[in-house]
Amino acid sequence: MEFKDRVFLITGSTSGIGQGIAKALLEKEAKVIVNYAHNEESAKETNELLKDYKDNVLFIKADISSEKAVIDMYQRIEEKFGKLDGIVNNAVYDKIFSIEDLTAEEYRRELNVNVVARWMCVKYAIPLLKKSKMPRIVNIASRLGTKPMEDSVAYCTSEAATIMLTKCCALELTKKYNIKTNTVSPSMTMTPLVRKSYTEDEIKKTAEKNPSGRLGTIEDTVNAVLFLLSEQADYINGENLNVNGGILLV
To answer: Where are the beta strands (DSSP E) in the chain?
Structure first.
């Protein structure tokens, strides 16, 4: 897979899966825009992690739920690189609420970040993606976009909407501009956030439920994303690639 000098935006990429995708692309000599919204500490840590690639990386602080912030972000990308070969919509917002406890404000917040923001990142990327010979969009959703879970109604519905957003983009943007769009849907992945949010016993029990006997790793999802961004995936369009060890089978 050839990524040298190709330009990619990864939203929410100062931790976990997004950070892993950014680092993997930089290792393959791509140019990467690392996006984050608020966490300056994570941004500093990521900057240190990627210091060997400083000539090929651009950090942009932008809350992608703001339309103005998204527009400004792409203006900076155009000034720096002049084009864009792909975006990975990785930024996500998720809080656990039962149907009864969930407020309209909180529901709108999750939909705004997990659906509307992803759509805006696609919409305003199009002029730059049109300059690419091999434009790609990968939306990161979740296994919960196809299988419901209690106390996660807002997250489940927003991730289901992301999968449909992918299909709509694939249908429309491929015909117009040859922009291929796909979804990657991981199951629970061993990110720093998961390690903080769950006990070792909870992690162990979840892993035991999986036919593969383990939780996903960051590398599992990174490998899937890089494949979909590559020339090898040119005839894959509008698909939802589940990276979950088979958990949807049980």
So the answer is: 7-10, 31-36, 57-61, 86-89, 136-140, 180-186, 240-243
pLDDT at 196: 85
C-alpha 244/C-alpha 238 separation (Å) is 19
Q: Domains plus CATH for the chain?
A: 7-241 (3.40.50.720)
Residues 6+ apart with CB under 8 A from 15: 39, 42, 46, 191, 192, 193
Give the Cα separation of 34 and 32 in Å (integer).
6
Are 141 and 159 spatial neighbours (Cβ–Cβ below 8 Å)? yes
Burial class (CB in 10 A: 0-12, 13-18, 19+), 21: buried
Other C-beta atoms lying within 10 Å of the C-beta of residue 41 = 10
Task: Return the structure tokens found at 236.
Answer: 């894959």
Count H helices and E strands in the chain, helices first.
10, 7
Spatial separation of the C-alpha atoms in residues 179 and 139, rounded to whole Å: 13
Residue type, 18: G
Question: Does 192 score more than 90 pLDDT?
Answer: no
Q: Name the residue type at position 186.
A: P
Task: Look up residue 185 and give its two tokens.
Answer: 């849907």
Nearest to 18 by CA among 129, 112, 140: 140
Q: List pLDDT tens digits, range 193-213.
A: 888 888 999 999 999 999 999
Nearest alpha-carbon partner for 189 in 239, 153, 225, 150 = 225
Contact indicator for 34, 58 with CB cutoff of 8 Å? yes
CB 240 within 8 A of CB 166: yes
